[in-house]
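We both want to read discrete structure tokens more fluently, so let's practise on a single case. Would you write everything just below, so we can both look at the same thing?
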Amino acid sequence: MTGSIAALHNYPIKGFSPQPTRLARLTAGRAFPDDRLMAVEIGPSGFDPGAPAWIPKMRFAVLARLAELARVKTRLDPSTRRLEARAPGGRALEADLTTEAGRRDFERWLEETLANQLPEPLEAPLRVLDGQGWRFTDHPLGHVSILNLASIRDLEGRIGRRLDPLRFRANVHVDGWPAWAELGWEGREIALGTARVRVFKPIVRCTATEVDLATGVRDIDIPGELFRLYGHTLCGVYLHVEASGEVAPGDRALPL
């Protein structure tokens, strides 16, 4: 049942563009490198940088709340916090998110961009947050996420539609496992590259997966289709890193 890593992605800004990586060093007890480092809140989220704590994703600018965010393409250098952002029909932006001026520029640019796309104005102002080591994960203990590409292909075949695996916003894509086998592996260890991880729990899918990443339109009810076809809304699993190591595309993904 040995699989292989097909792709690795991080999401430096929660809710925004995936960034592929060719090598990641997983550290025991830690989240995926450079993942969910920053977020954009809609109105006061309650985040306190002095005492950071997990906050539900719907208080942030995420696809589950704003499908139109898929049209915004971002690239953030995690080490410098230099941002490049663009959207159809608008001006591009470059900003230094380590500075207050840079963060305000991104907030204004994003509000301007979304104002041209949303049917109604945002109900609250946007504010860029830097976790300064804190991670804005969807689940308080969802350190690393993994997606079985065979499960996606099985779902594609049943609904008769191609699905971009990036809809599921996972850190690690794996090929070579039986479809849906991962949902029965809670507590099981996996050798992932030179690291060792343990399956924490399956991921409950939300409305973010409904969004076509090219158009920003909700075109497939993924949670509804999962429930109709399989009797659950699960796809992918969260992992905890047990032993540090490096992972790269082509490396093994071997359940132990």
User: Anything to note?
Assistant: The radius of gyration is 18 Å. The chain has three helices and 17 strands. The domain at 3-32+139-255 is CATH 2.40.33.20 (M1 Pyruvate Kinase; Domain 3).
